[in-house]
Amino acid sequence: MKRLLSFLLCFGILVFWSSCRNDFEFSPSTGNLEFAKDTVYLDTVFTNIGSSTYNLKVYNRSNDDIVIPTIQLENGVNSFYRMNVDGGTGDVGTPREGKFFEDVELLANDSLFIFIETTINIETLSNSDIQFLYTDKILFDAGSNQQDVDLVTLVKDAVFIYPNRDATTGLVETLTFDVDGDGNDDETTLQGRFLEDDELTFTSEKPYVIYGYAGVNAGKTLTMEAGARVHFHADSGIIVTNNGTLNINGALSSDQEVLENEVILESDRLEPLYTDVPGQWGTIWLFNGSVNNTINYATIRNATIGILSEGNQDATNDKLTITNSQIYNASSFGILGRATSIAAENVVINNCGQSSFAGTLGGKYNFTHCTIANYWNSSFRQFPSLLLNDFVLDENGIPVVNDLTEANFTNCIIYGNDNPEFLLENEGSVFNFKFTNCLLRFDNSNIEGTGNYVFDDTDFYVDNIFNLDPDFEDANENLMRIGEASGANGIALPLIPAGFDLLNTPRNSSSSDSGAYQSVVLED
After folding, report:
1. What DSSP assignment string belongs to 166-189?
2. Burial group, residue 456, by CB count within 10 angstroms (0-12, 13-18, 19+)
3. Shortest CA distance to 147 belongs to which of 137, 156, 155?
4. Is residue 424 within 8 Å of residue 389, measured between CB atoms?
5. HEC secondary structure over 185-208
6. Under the phi-then-psi rule, with left for phi > 0, alpha for psi from -120 to 50, and beta for the rest, what region is 177?
7. Which of 288, 268, 290, 130 lies closest to 221 in space, CA to CA?
């Protein structure tokens, strides 16, 4: 009985107390809202491509529950911005949706979130500029108590390359080419199309945005001129088919942050959040039969595989010649070669989910003054920075072997945050490799069963240095210059002509450094 009386007494007090509260009596806003920022920058977007979602936090610091009469975009229904206010989009199905909100309630000492996105058509803003600064405002209470927050977005025009879509079936065009080398074209599942003749030169005038795979057909050459910018949507890339050619003709840049003359190939997500996210697009695929591919002064970043080169290991000219270039943040391999031929000089590869360079199923490889490093989390990658093998396993797990006719690494740095950082897997009789005047990460005393690693055999290992710190500027941030304390300093084999490093610094003909860069004094 006492418990029942206590319960009834407490219940009565609660009812009386709640009946006296005016928590849900909202007063009009008096123009004293506070904001987490006075301007929301939505970074850079391409025309007609949606932005990421950005947010603005709005605070009611008063002790009164308030109602904001209106939250709206200054440009109204014509604005290219759209909003979501605390989970709502406003008048659904009308032109006001995402643009105009009425009587938004905000409790005392509470806050709400506004989420902002944009998709902008630059053609409606400017007839000539390739980029345009688009602005608007969020207005809070359009009356005498009005407050506002600015919205700013840089919009870039671009050349868009994408596959056609069948209006009836909705199917997206796929590439058809000779996949198995029997002389007949095969239908693939790769969404994309072959480039037309008037699309085979990429200039620096506008960026290029590619959806699906842009194909280079037989007898055609895709040329990318100095300063070109190429952006790929997810699962997109370039494929160079039989007798097709890719020539990337970048040039030395005076500003190593802007890289104004390099050709840059990366994702179509321009927001800073995506700057170093691996695996945002597919690959540059040099298919079996493509010929005379050259890459000079290019930066390739955030792909799944930076470059995939297949076949033609016995070609008179190397299938791929790559110089003065950088490949970073590939989620799988920086360069993956399969029974192919690659010549590389002054190339830097770093931070890849598997190997930075993998020469598989044999092939012919000659790397000079290259930095092949990997500082990806070593707990999550299966292979070292450098992988060489001469086989692939068939469906029954039986090795299919092909000769590794050459694998020469001269004046290179092969290093990373794991040990060892190179792996040689030999199943056949021809497996020719040689490391000359390289800085190598391999602590032999700590590893058993090293197989082919006979370090005192001068046919394979000549004047190399093991396990000394390369003194990279900041490998985690892909800053791969070496300092004065580098183990690579002064160890290079003198070459004639001595040549230049990746930054066009002259090398010393009698004593130069291994790797793609000559050493410099690094700032702390």
Report:
1. -TTT-PBPEEEE-SSSSSS-EEEE
2. exposed
3. 137
4. yes
5. CEEEEEEEEECCHHHCEECCCCCE
6. beta
7. 290
Tokens of 294: 């050259």
pLDDT at 373 over 60: yes
Q: Going along 381-449, which residue ranges are E strands?
A: 386-389, 391-393, 399-401, 404-410, 413-416, 422-425, 434-436, 439-440
User: Are 177 and 241 a contacting pair, CB within 8 Å?
Assistant: yes
Q: How far apart are CA 382 and CA 379, in angstroms?
A: 8
Q: Are strands 320-328 and 298-301 parallel, antiparallel or unpaired?
A: parallel
Domain ranges of the chain: 27-156, 158-279, 311-524
- Say if CB 312 and CB 337 are below 8 A apart: no
Q: Are the beta carbons of 119 and 51 closer than 8 angstroms?
A: yes
**Beta strands in 211-254, from DSSP E residues, in sequence order:** 213-216, 221-225, 229-232, 237-240, 245-249
| Neighbouring-strand partners of residue 248 | 224, 295
Q: What is the pLDDT of residues 224-253, one digit of tens each?
A: 999 999 999 999 999 999 999 999 999 999
Task: Supply 66's token pair.
Answer: 């308030």
CATH architecture of 27-156: Sandwich (2.60)
Residues 6+ away with beta carbon under 8 Å from 423: 383, 384, 386, 387, 388
**C-alpha angle with apex 35: 32 to 36, nearest 5 degrees?**
155
Task: Calculate the average pLDDT of the chain.
Answer: 89
User: Residue 266: pLDDT above 90?
Assistant: yes
Determine the Cα–Cα distance for residues 369 and 496; give it in Å rounded to an integer: 13
Q: Quick check: helix, strand or coil at residue 125? A: coil
- Is 128 a residue whose pLDDT tops 70? no
* 3-class secondary structure, 8: helix
Contact 307, 462 (CB under 8 A): no
Q: Is the pTM above the cut of 0.70?
A: yes
Give which of 81, 235, 60 is closest to 153, Cα–Cα: 81
- Say which DSSP state 2 is in: H
Give the pLDDT of residue 378: 81
Q: What is the mean pLDDT of residues 269-293?
A: 94
- Cα distances from 118 to residues 35, 208, 441, in angstroms, run 20, 20, 48
**What b/e sequence results for 366-403 when a residue is b if at least 16 CB atoms lie within 10 Å of its CB, and e otherwise?**
bbbbbbbbbbbeeeebebbbbbbbbbeeeeeeeeebbb
Q: Which tokens sit at 384? A: 């070292």
Side chain identity at 303, as an amino acid letter? A
Q: Which residues of 92-118 are buried (b: 16+ CB within 10 A; e: fewer)?
A: eeeebebbbbeebebeeeebbebbbbb
